[in-house]
Structures
1.
Amino acid sequence: MTAPQVEIYGPGYHPSQTKHHEWRTAENSAAHLLPHLERLGRANPRLRVLDVGAGSGTITASLARYLPSEGTILATDISDDILDRARTHAEAQGPDVSRRISFQRASAYELPFPDGAFDVVHAHQVLCHLASPADAVREMLRVCAPGGGVVSLRETDMGMWCFWPAREELEQFRQLATDVMVANGGQAEGGRRLLSWVLQAGAERADVEAGFGTWCYSAPQDRRAWGGSMIDRLRTGQMRDKGFDLGLVTERGIEEMIRAWEDWMAADDATLGIMNGEVIVKKK
Amino acid sequence: MTAPQVEIYGPGYHPSQTKHHEWRTAENSAAHLLPHLERLGRANPRLRVLDVGAGSGTITASLARYLPSEGTILATDISDDILDRARTHAEAQGPDVSRRISFQRASAYELPFPDGAFDVVHAHQVLCHLASPADAVREMLRVCAPGGGVVSLRETDMGMWCFWPAREELEQFRQLATDVMVANGGQAEGGRRLLSWVLQAGAERADVEAGFGTWCYSAPQDRRAWGGSMIDRLRTGQMRDKGFDLGLVTERGIEEMIRAWEDWMAADDATLGIMNGEVIVKKK
């Protein structure tokens, strides 16, 4: 086994970071997996799902609702603190959800499970935080069951955000977020590169379905959730600190970005579209 | 009535332009409409659909498969030639499809139909070719039936293309396509602006669902269809001629773009993602 990769979640776990993650559900962030989950669940009532890098676990909990009668999800992350938060969220969904989910600290680079241990291996916005994404995909393929198991991945692309109304400060925000992500050792172009990582990890092209999915923040409640979270990041988040440390932004620049987000949140015709790469690998 | 807008389809109807349009189906290009079409069709077996700017009509024909028993689609365009092509395509799909579709020459700015004449009004990649998109949306809202009729729109965004493997020449192609579109009087940022056009046309925000959808060209057959069509455009299309006329590109630049598309078509890990704005307006 090669030396373990450095295990740090670059953005950290400040509420400014985790809050908008909790907007995420299976429906808005793992829709490409759902037909496969339902198909496999019809054939196997004891479906075993691994959710790698589950974070605060809102997608995990909503995936649980798509499982067959005896299906289970094991959620991993590298932080015990965030797994505690995920556990609390799962319990709040009631026993039908929480009884299906267990939690275990694990690195995506060295999953402590035997080959083929899971029917479905899912990871959402995990590879973009890793220095060696293909190594993590190789591990996910290893623990996925041969003969039809599925690895499901989704990664954002920091180059694929569009805002309306157009504001230079929002574009500066996107650039700052990108630069901080890269400075943290992450991958800014995961959406477009996801397929290449999967092939580097040993999958064959014919076994991979590649596509793109989106997030749209435009309805008033979605604008408030997203814009409020971005303003929190600018006021108190790791992005602010790192931006100052790296000389990427000034106090005045931060204030202008905050005002631009406030204006965007207030505009009835506002949209933010973000594109994410999505792949399904069917393991032979 | 205000003076009619100039009615020209900027890109023209050369095969280099129309060929890749014929890859489009209801499933890959109007998925946001399908649940509404099925919902409305269950309540009304005589559902009346208007497809504005139907072009070569492949989406029209595949929408016909989602209609209730006595449902019909009227397809309009400003070109009789392209409507002939659409009619031929519809006839090739067999009588179950062709009996439902009729064709009529019409401008999106002045739809020759009474108020509320259609239960569903659909337009795909039409507004991006117009100088006054909101005026066309106002017409579509006018001919849509009040009390629950639906206007369904989808518009691309030329700023939201991502390529892998990264190649400067593909980015130059995207920029050339954008510049030619704008020189033809079109709108390059329709994806992000679609909601704003709909509100300018008089819709209320609470009656609009806004989102984004994507095209992905990555599977071998999709790479061949898209790449081949882009190379045709560079070799013989209106984009080439206009690019030369406007001094946007050189012969050598064109050749380099063609080679870049050929390499992209041959790469197993190649992806092209394109994001489109999508809205559904429910007419009160």
2.
Amino acid sequence: MEPYAARIKDVLERRAKAGRFAPGVAAYSDSDMFKKSPSPDLPKAKRWDDHFTEECKGRKQCVLKQAAKHLNTPGLISLGGGLPSPSYFPFSSLSLSVPTPPDFSSSATAGSSPLRTITIGKNDIAEGKGEYDLAVALNYGQVTGSAQMLRFVTEITEILFAPPYADWGCAQTTGSTGVLETAARMFTERARGDKVLMEEYTYSTAQETMEALGIEVVGVRMDGQGMVPGDLRGTLEGWDVGARGRKPHVLYTVPTGQNPTGATLTPERRREIYDICEEHDIFIIEDDPYYLLQMAPYPPASSPPPAETSSLPSYLSSLPGTFLGIDTSGRVLRLDSFSKVLAPGSRMGWVTASAQVIDRFLRHGESSQGPSGFSQAALHTLLDRTWGHEGFLAWLANLGGEYTGRRNVLLGACGEFLPGVATWDAPSAGMFLWIKLDHTKHPRLADGILAIEDEIFHSCIARGVLVARGSWFRAASDGSEPQALFFRATYAMAGADAIREATRRFGAAVRESFGIKEE
Amino acid sequence: MEPYAARIKDVLERRAKAGRFAPGVAAYSDSDMFKKSPSPDLPKAKRWDDHFTEECKGRKQCVLKQAAKHLNTPGLISLGGGLPSPSYFPFSSLSLSVPTPPDFSSSATAGSSPLRTITIGKNDIAEGKGEYDLAVALNYGQVTGSAQMLRFVTEITEILFAPPYADWGCAQTTGSTGVLETAARMFTERARGDKVLMEEYTYSTAQETMEALGIEVVGVRMDGQGMVPGDLRGTLEGWDVGARGRKPHVLYTVPTGQNPTGATLTPERRREIYDICEEHDIFIIEDDPYYLLQMAPYPPASSPPPAETSSLPSYLSSLPGTFLGIDTSGRVLRLDSFSKVLAPGSRMGWVTASAQVIDRFLRHGESSQGPSGFSQAALHTLLDRTWGHEGFLAWLANLGGEYTGRRNVLLGACGEFLPGVATWDAPSAGMFLWIKLDHTKHPRLADGILAIEDEIFHSCIARGVLVARGSWFRAASDGSEPQALFFRATYAMAGADAIREATRRFGAAVRESFGIKEE
């Protein structure tokens, strides 16, 4: 709790000193406007020119956005930009009905407790009612989104991750999946024979993004604690350029509550992997959407299990740390997202990296025009105007408690309904359980793992349960067969009764396929 | 009016027959679900395989989204997808304060007339209160956005454009600028030496997008009515493959109220250009964000000028037609946007093209995850639940009246304050006035057009007016000097008094540079 509380205090003091902050339409902003001034003993980030692609290096700034710098001239009237007048936006105000701390119980979220109505108007800035309004949010903006929301995410980054180098910064995004494509195009190109290192089972869209661009994916072995550093080292040290082409210079990793395995790197592993990347000059793309979704230990320490809601101190002490938090070289592009902790439909997130990498990232994004103004208006009104930084963290703590309850139901159901060929590790973060089935016990082993997986998957559908096939997540551009049999289950969506029933059905499908009699 | 009214009636009858339409989270949808069944005599679109890039042809469907098809199985419980539970979205309802027809006067939009509060709740579908809700809008969705909003834009496309071939369809976008990059990657690649034909002055971001991808831009001459068909024909017929490389196979055009020239193609020119594209097998990217922003003729027919609000019949009769509306081969990818007619911050628009092109477009978009759910919820609640199709068209008619008033102020001020070296055509659509200065009359002509432009631009800034430099918009990858001197002014943002004062300042800067004495 301690460092977080001190950093929140810092942020609030800086805000108080800075006074009212209400920049107008398409105002320029960067994280340096909001960060704590870096202490002089912090290192500066390395330069990544030799990692960037030709496309990345050639990206120019949008000529029309450069002209926007003149808009700060006092008394200037603009006939320059193609911005519509906010007087013609048919939205005078936007209101949301939301829960407020400390009443973050699930009944409040579901709407049965009293909620608070919060509102952002079209002209709140001019009318002195707020620091952001619809006239600004709903007009064109900068690629990095509004200055108002960039301030909030920069502050949250400082509070939660405290990057240990001087020239870091943030940029808002329209969600992390889109960032993957941008990052791929910044760092890898087919013509150079580039490859990307990934966990051997990982987010399938990350692989699909790379493969669509002609970039080969190289899987690194995992165990219950995620990527195995020794295998990463072995892959890099034993790399045969003659046989395999250019050595990889980019690592893509989902370090916390990983999709699909649910694994979370220990601080020791994270440090070891970072050091290997330093040694081999690997740039790290840290895709960490589940980081803020932390759960209590399993099995529960006390019986009956702890209350559904987690306290803020225990939540904060459960945060396992990040690559960004140990990144003294500025070699990490970290991806954060509001999708898993507020709502995926916000299509809002942010990246954190060195100033050079952020600058290049924004040039790639010139055509995206930043996140939706409705999303920014909604999230700013909730997070900045209503909850505040500590309120947001309290929300996350409560959410972690809710997920703990759901996860415990699924783990309990697996213990009850799955036969002995099934094994799993209890996840401490995220929304996924990775279930291994011992294929060596399967009567039709000779048909191959994919055939068995296919049979069980369709048997599950026929019994009324959808689970995700392990092979969907396998990072292997070489087309080789998987060596083990996995299914991924999530406890994020279904209610407790449905989770138990679904697990029972899955167990029945597994038993039938393996020829295991009901006990 | 007539064809539009009949098509609206068709749409409403189809809706009544279909009954309640309230699909759930991430439901699959396509325009065929909402279109009028095509009559059997309509042609089918051509196939564009030989126009697509390798990347485009290689794009696969997202494996996780393919699994979503099983979600329709009755009684199925999903532990498969990584969708968070809507019970944890901290938004129970979203309300907007909006004007409603027929009270679309500027005072209503500005908030001084009574407005209506419209609301979308989290569980409106389950509670029978609506066909869309926050539980669906704020969760993950399909690339094409929600089925509910796809229905609305498909219907508007049918009502306004009535594509004359059978297998057209729409997909939602996060705004047209992002689409440009996708379209560029679908149709052009550096390795093939591809080039794109464009108006010789055009949207600078379109050029920047192409150049960032290593695609050469080939300008086609324009006059007051837009692209000159004869120059397009001459460019294509005289193309020397030996000297210039591969002949262009893509035309990018902004046909209505063009940015920056304000020009609108006549129906005859549009037809002529389409026929040239048929002959030379050119695929057309029709970027038409100003189409719905139509203004009354200038000078005003009556004195005093007509009332600010336009009638719906006169608005509809002013619509000049589109490439999509004459596209019998399915060779048009049309881009529409809500940015200019509702709010740019919505980051919402849609494309219309043949089923094959839409399919490829969606595969490129797998990583975008579609438009913001807040934007979709807001626009659906306004457009579908409140205004309806005819209400939306009435809003557009009113908006055209408002822009007519502003444009007339700017044109009046130009007549009053600009010296005789300045000439212009009155735009009938969009938000831009393109002002030509006769550089041959300039005392320092020998310095070159760019130097004169630079001098006037900075003199304008010093006098307190921002205008856009013509050279910013020039489509010429060859780096040649422009042959004429232009500035672009917009009447979209500033009020009447500010427009007059800004024009006076611009006129003073021009006079000084040209050495013209005040009259």
